[in-house]
Amino acid sequence: MARLNLALIVRTAGTNGGTEKYTSDLASWLVERGHRVSLLCSEGVAPNGVGVIPVSPSVIGGLVGRAAFGRRVAAVDLSAFDAVESMGRWPVIGIHRAGGGSHRAWLTARGGRVRWRDRLELWMEQRAFSAAVRIVANSRMAAADIARDCPAFKRKILVIENGIQLERFVPDPVRRAEKRSSMQVSDKARVVAFLGHGFARKGLSTAVAAFQQMACSTDELWVIGNGERPAFATGPQIRWLGSVPHPEHWLPAVDATILPTLYDSAANTTLESMACGVPPVVSARDGNHDRVPDRRLVVQHPDDISGFATALDYALKNRDLRDQVRVAAEAWPVSRNGEAMEQLFEEVKNG
Q: Residues 6 or more apart from 112 whose CB is under 8 A from it?
């Protein structure tokens, strides 16, 4: 394939979030393939070999700041690039990666009133979908949600699932022993991990209740993520670890993960757990649920406490699942996603 000149648009360069990490992995892979890659971003550090086109940062943060970033991107001349991909809800003539799935689907899952912030998100989403040549969904669930909620753009949608760094996320007996020793946890104790920022959306309350329903006295639940500790997440068996920079250091030490998410277009932690040989117990509203090899690990309703308790008990009692989930993850290397995106970039270049 001929060398391509590509632009990826992401507000913050780096690896501190799902979108940022995906962009960094894709950019690095494309550079290794010999392509020229530039990031349009306001802050952060780009991977080695990746160029940066700085976009002046907004003095306003949050959602309004994201909208302002989109206006600044619109003022950049992108005509020299063979293809452009936007990683956020900004109107760009090129590829739009709908990493968050459908905002309307999230509103339906969340329930409650629609706030002004939601109206702005929906407006930004519609503009991004309208401007895009192709819309990339990172799961079949997300693609179905977008097609249902925005039927006018159905023909633009293409499913390209995320990959996983299989050399980074691996079963590691040495790291497992070291981490459990540092946490003063015996190798015989069963440890469940909840990983995710945004505890309400990710279903922490259901995770805690399900764990408490099935746990033995020696079991532990490790909560990893940003946010204040709610009152219900207390007790001697619950460890509050906060945000950790390297989840691959912690995952080999646990025996199962739990994610009763209300809505995730494709939760990174599901694949990361599988790659580490750790069976994930997830809700069917995680777009990655269809990559979990045993359906008994998937719970249909995010608030089904008994269902999650049963699935968690199954995950902890069946050690054969460790090999099964690792093998399933091995089908999704970063290169699989990269090759699909590379082909799409070539198609967009050729019109």
A: none
Instruction: Concatenate the DSSP letters of all residues of 28-75 into one string.
Output: HHHHHTT-EEEEEESEE-PPTT-EEEE-PPPSS-HHHHHHHHHHHHHT
pTM of the model: 0.93
Q: ∠ CA 81-84-87 to the nearest 5 degrees? A: 150
- CATH fold of 173-329 reads Rossmann fold (3.40.50)
Domain ranges of the chain: 5-163+333-349, 173-329
78-111 burial string, b = 16+ CB within 10 Å, else e?
beebbbbbbbbbbbbebbbbbbbbbbbbbbebee
Q: How far is CA 162 from CA 47, 102, 135, 289, 291, in A?
A: 18, 17, 14, 13, 11
Per-residue pLDDT reduced to its tens digit, 312-347: 999 999 999 999 999 999 999 999 999 999 999 999
Tell me 114's DSSP state. Answer: P
**Domains 5-163+333-349 and 173-329 fall in the same CATH topology:** yes
Pick the CATH number of 5-163+333-349 from 3.40.50.300, 3.20.20.70, 3.40.30.10, 3.40.50.2000: 3.40.50.2000
pLDDT tens digits for range 173-209: 999 999 999 999 988 899 999 999 889 999 999 999 9
CA distance 349 to 93: 12
